[in-house]
Design a protein that fits this description.
The complex is a heterodimer of chains A (317) and B (202).
Chain A (H helix, E strand, L loop, with lengths): L17 H14 L17 E6 L5 H12 L3 E6 L11 H10 L4 E6 L4 H8 L3 E7 L5 H15 L6 E5 L6 H12 L3 E5 L10 H5 L3 E2 L3 H5 L4 E4 L15 H8 L3 H4 L7 E3 L12 H4 L6 H19 L10
Parallel strand pairs in A: 1-2, 1-3, 3-4, 5-6, 5-8, 6-7, 8-9
Helix pairs in contact in A: 1-5, 1-12, 2-12, 5-6, 5-12
Chain B lengths: L20 E7 L1 H18 L6 E6 L3 H16 L4 E5 L30 E9 L3 H12 L5 E9 L13 E5 L6 E6 L8 E6 L4
Parallel strand pairs in B: 2-3, 2-4, 4-5, 5-6
Antiparallel strand pairs in B: 1-8, 7-8
Helix pairs in contact in B: 1-2
The chains are: A alpha/beta (317), B alpha/beta (202).
């Protein structure tokens, strides 16, 4: 019998045990069916208030959390940075305390600095869910990626997963490396040397392999996970040009042929077509990008349900 | 709600599994089978056959019971009724209770319920709150022609907290509130039987 998911706050995958992760994924699978109903709504979180506090722009994640909250009948409201008091000089802590005084049950937070959700969790009575903090973690993205992999491969244990691209700035990569290694996958990363940090040494011990060439990472992989090139960081000269990046690291049909015949391709979006992923790969049947978005709603429903009081332990009547 | 700061775990009420003492056994496997056979006959008699009939088991113990009734109806009528499963967790009225930690399982109503004659199946009818949750969930899936309730054990009207009664009853067992009725099924337990249990007196 699995140990239950017992944390109110979901701050990162790094803090979770394998059985807690499995518990969240199992719960998410049971939430999937709700989005296929004609009335896509259950009364589970009626009367609960969920605040989406986004200090960084986001369409997919914020919409996904909002839809998840609404399908559970929670009252969801969105605060984006431009409209908030932060632009008037209020500190993050004061914003958090003021929100807390209005007694929300859960705050979903995204911020460009690592550790902001952890700070909020210290002062807030609401459950805190990390929707991405700097280059640290993006736990719900890793969970929905895991759900997509489980759905198509039936398992995670023993799979070979290649993660390609800007590992340095990617919270998606960090959360995924934690999750996949905890669940027994063999993870290989590759990207420009400037974007694959040596600080990942502690993960090498947990089973992560750092490859010098993208081909070495992809060869024999069951799953190829492509990261977005963060063009907004292009000024920092991590690599010479986007064209050169595309030539050396972009996922093309030829590179994908090195993977297993039934390999699947994941991308957290938004995609830069023709840069990190070729258009014909992105549009092929092996690319599960829209499945990831679909499972994202189920994962976030499960996380909100568990953060506000639900359980994962099997065996109740 | 309790303040459980960051990384602090919420206590689970796992210690609720106190050892219960079986006071008496009110049905064995043969008696259960006979009761389910009679229920199946009554269901097809009242609904004039299996046409348009849709059995819906309530998780967990209503599901194997509904399967047994489905098989018996198929044997009687030569036609199997439609079959589905409800998980009522997200419709419970005690979800906000701290420490409840109810676990969500899957609802499986693949066939449209519109215009069908639904037979809800559960193991025990007690307060009626589970059935209220099941009815609410069912209505979110469409507008059935009619909903009826079949239970293996009815603990009696005096315990009801809502105006809900069963249409088909395997056995009426008047009980005290301190007693617990347990329907044991081979899917979850070692035996197939119904017993009255009580918490031990210290």
């Amino acid at each position: 019998m699995d140990k239950p998911f017992r944390r109110r706050d979901l701050l990162g995958i790094r803090d979770l045990s394998a059985s807690e992760i499995t518990g969240i994924l199992d719960t998410a699978e049971n939430f999937r069916e709700i989005s296929t109903r004609e009335v896509k709504k259950v009364p589970a979180l009626r009367g609960k208030t969920i605040i989406n506090l986004f200090f960084e722009s986001s369409t997919r994640t914020r919409t996904s959390f909002e839809i998840a909250a609404k399908r559970l009948s929670a009252d969801a409201l969105n605060i984006s940075v431009a409209a908030s008091s932060l632009s008037k000089g209020e500190t993050l802590l004061d914003t958090a305390l003021n929100l807390d005084a209005m007694a929300p049950d859960c705050i979903v937070v995204r911020h460009s600095s690592a550790g902001v959700p952890h700070q909020l969790a210290k002062v807030s009575r609401a459950a805190i869910v990390n929707a991405g903090d700097g280059a640290n973690e993006h736990p719900t993205q890793a969970l929905l990626d895991a759900m997509t992999i489980r759905e198509h491969k039936g398992k995670i244990d023993g799979l070979e997963v290649a993660i390609i691209g800007d590992i340095l700035h990617s919270r998606v990569a960090r959360s995924n490396i934690h999750l996949l290694t905890k669940l027994g996958a063999k993870v290989r990363v590759a990207g420009p040397g400037t974007l694959v940090p040596s600080a990942f040494q502690y993960l090498v011990e947990a089973g992560l392999t750092v490859c010098d060439h993208v081909e070495d990472a992809i060869r024999g992989a069951d799953v190829v996970m492509i990261l977005r090139i963060q063009r907004e960081r292009q000024d920092s000269a991590y690599f010479p040009t986007l064209r050169e990046y595309s030539i050396h690291y972009g996922l093309t049909d030829a590179r994908l042929d090195l993977a297993k015949k039934d390999a699947i391709v994941l991308h957290p979006g938004p995609m830069n077509r023709g840069i990190e992923i070729a258009s014909d790969v992105a549009d092929s049947s092996r690319s599960l990008i829209l499945d990831q978005v679909k499972y994202g709603v189920a994962v976030r429903m499960a996380v909100l349900y568990l953060a506000t009081g639900g359980g994962t332990q099997a065996g109740t009547d | 709600m309790n303040f459980n700061g960051p990384f602090v775990t919420v206590s689970l009420h796992m210690g609720d599994e106190i050892n219960l003492v079986e006071k008496s056994r009110i049905m064995d496997a043969a008696a259960m089978n006979r009761a389910l056979r009679r229920l199946s006959t009554e269901i097809v008699e009242k609904n004039q056959g299996a046409e348009g009939l849709y059995l819906v088991g309530i998780r967990r113990r209503g599901v194997p019971l509904a399967e047994k009734i489905r098989d018996k109806i198929e044997a009687i009528e030569g036609q199997a009724p439609l079959f589905g499963i409800l998980d009522i967790t997200l419709y419970r009225d005690d979800l906000s209770t701290v420490g409840a930690n109810p676990v969500v399982n899957r609802t499986e109503l693949t066939e449209d319920i519109e215009g069908k004659n639904i037979i809800l199946v559960d193991d025990v009818l007690y307060t009626g709150r589970t059935i209220r949750a099941a009815l609410d969930q069912l209505m979110d899936f469409g507008r059935p022609n009619k909903v009826q309730l079949a239970v293996l054990v009815d603990r009696g009207r005096e315990h009801r907290e809502l105006p809900i009664q069963a249409d088909f009853i395997g056995k009426l067992v008047p009980t005290k509130q301190t007693e617990i009725i347990k329907v044991m099924l081979k899917e979850f337990d070692d035996v197939e039987a119904v017993g009255i249990f009580e918490k031990p007196v210290d």
